[in-house]
Design brief:
alpha+beta, disordered N terminus, signal, 8 helices, Lipoprotein, Immunoglobulin-like, six-stranded antiparallel sheet, about 30% strand, single chain, 19 strands
Length: about 375
C-alpha cells in the first residue's frame, strides 16, 4: 500500500493527543484551568511513526511544568509555505494535570519542521528555548527503577493476534529488569526482525519502560529508551522463562481502543474525530468485536502481481485504530476510505500481509466517527 512514511508519521503524531479523552474535552479543561495550578506532567516518548510508547515518565516539579506550559502556549503558529525536511525523529506526548484533572495534552515532534500540536488541533512552531526546557524536563524525570508489574505481549505469527500475560510479583519483575540492564551491548548488530518476539512493558506506578526481546536467529534485546541493542544470553533467557512461569499466556483481549478519523488533504487534517473507547462494559464489548473482526479480515489478494494502491498524496479519509490491554500496546490498524487494504502494524515485524476490508468491518468502524 503506497502511503509514505512521512504521512504516517503525521497521522501518528496527531493521534497521540487523544490519550485520556476527546480533543474537545481536553481543550475545554485547558481553557478552564489557570496555568499556575498544574501539579503533574506525564511525558510519553515515541519512536518515529510509532503508536506504542517507548517510555513514560512523570514530573512533579511545578515550577518546571509551569515554565514548559507557558512557553508552549506562547509559541507562534507555523509560517505558511515553509520548507520542512523529511528526517524521522522522536515525539514527546505531554499530558498536563491539575490533581486528577487533565488540563492539556500536546505532542512535540522532532521530525520535519519540529511542530507542536495542541489538543485543540492547533499547530505551533517550537523554538530552541522550548526544546531546551522540554528536554530538561524529560531528562530530570526518573525512569523505571523498581517495577511493580510486567505485561508481556507475545507475537508468534504474522497473521494471528498476539498473546498476553501479566506478572505481578514485584521481586521477580525487579530481578529480571536488573538482569536485562546487565546484558552486554552488541558490537556487530544483526537484524533482529520477524517472529517470534516479545514486547515487555515494565510498570512502576504511572511510569513505564518498554523492552523488546527477539528470539529468532538473532537473539537480541532492545531497551527502548536507549540506543542500540543488547545480546541475550542463556542465563537471562532462562530467567525470563522462570519469571513467566508464575503466569500463563492467553489470547490478548483489548480493553481500550483509541481511534482517529480524519480527512487529510496534502498532509493537513480537517474534521478530526477522536474516540477513546473501553470505559464501560458496552464500550468494551464493541472494542473486542472490532478487534476480532479486524484480525479475521481475509488477506488481500494480489491483482496483476500487485496490491491495490492507496493515494500517497492528495485527499483521503483515514481511520487509525490503536488496541491495547492493561496499558500494553497490541496492534494498530490503518484503513483508508474507498481503499481495500487494511494495514496491521506490529513494531519489530516485517512483511506483515495486508488485509482486505469487509462490509462488516466498515459497519463497525464507521458509526464510531459520527456519534
Amino acid at each position: 500500500m503506497r502511503v509514505g512514511k512521512h504521512l504516517l508519521l503525521i497521522l501518528s503524531m496527531a493521534l497521540l493527543v487523544v490519550g485520556c479523552g476527546s480533543t474537545e474535552q481536553a481543550h475545554a479543561q485547558s481553557q478552564a484551568q489557570h496555568n499556575n495550578s498544574l501539579t503533574k506532567l506525564q511525558i510519553k516518548l515515541f519512536g518515529p511513526g510509532e503508536t506504542a510508547p517507548l517510555k513514560r515518565v512523570v514530573i512533579n516539579d511545578q515550577e518546571l511544568i509551569q515554565k514548559l506550559y507557558a512557553q508552549a502556549q506562547a509559541l507562534p503558529k507555523p509560517q505558511k509555505d515553509r520548507i520542512c525536511t523529511m528526517q524521522l525523529g522522536l515525539s514527546y506526548a505531554l499530558s498536563f494535570w491539575n490533581g486528577d484533572k487533565l488540563v492539556e495534552m500536546m505532542v512535540a515532534n522532532s521530525s520535519g519542521c519540529g511542530d507542536l500540536m495542541l489538543s485543540s488541533g492547533d499547530w505551533r512552531q517550537p523554538d530552541r528555548q522550548f526544546w531546551q526546557v522540554l528536554r530538561q524536563a524529560y531528562d530530570s524525570a526518573a525512569g523505571v527503577k523498581q517495577p511493580d508489574s510486567l505485561a508481556v505481549v507475545r507475537y508468534t505469527d504474522k497473521t494471528q493476534p498476539p498473546l498476553y500475560a501479566r506478572v505481578t510479583s514485584a521481586s521477580q519483575v525487579q530481578k529480571f529488569l536488573t538482569a536485562l540492564h546487565q546484558l552486554p551491548r552488541q558490537a556487530d548488530q544483526c537484524a533482529p526482525v520477524g517472529m517470534p518476539f516479545d514486547d515487555l512493558y515494565f510498570f512502576e506506578g504511572e511510569k513505564m519502560l518498554r523492552v523488546q526481546i527477539f528470539k529468532g536467529a538473532c537473539k537480541a534485546v532492545r531497551i527502548m529508551s536507549e540506543e542500540g541493542w543488547r545480546t541475550m544470553d542463556q542465563t537471562v533467557e532462562q530467567l525470563l522463562e522462570q519469571t513467566l512461569a508464575t503466569t500463563s499466556f492467553a489470547k490478548a483481549i483489548p480493553d481500550r481502543l483509541e481511534m482517529r478519523i480524519a480527512f487529510t488533504k496534502h498532509g493537513q487534517d480537517n474534521g478530526l474525530t477522536f474516540m477513546d473507547l473501553g470505559h464501560n462494559n458496552e464500550e468494551l464489548q464493541r472494542v473486542r468485536k472490532i478487534y476480532d473482526v479486524t484480525y479475521a479480515l481475509p488477506l488481500l489478494p494480489l491483482r496483476n502481481g500487485n496490491h491495490e494502491s492507496c493515494p500517497a498524496s492528495g485527499s483521503l479519509k483515514y481511520y487509525m485504530l490503536i488496541f491495547s490491554q492493561g496499558g500494553a500496546w497490541l496492534t494498530t490498524a490503518i484503513a483508508y476510505e474507498n481503499c481495500e487494504p487494511v494495514q496491521l502494524n506490529t513494531v519489530g515485524a516485517t512483511g506483515i500481509p495486508l488485509r482486505q476490508a469487509t462490509q462488516e468491518f466498515w459497519s463497525l468502524v464507521r458509526p464510531i466517527g459520527v456519534q
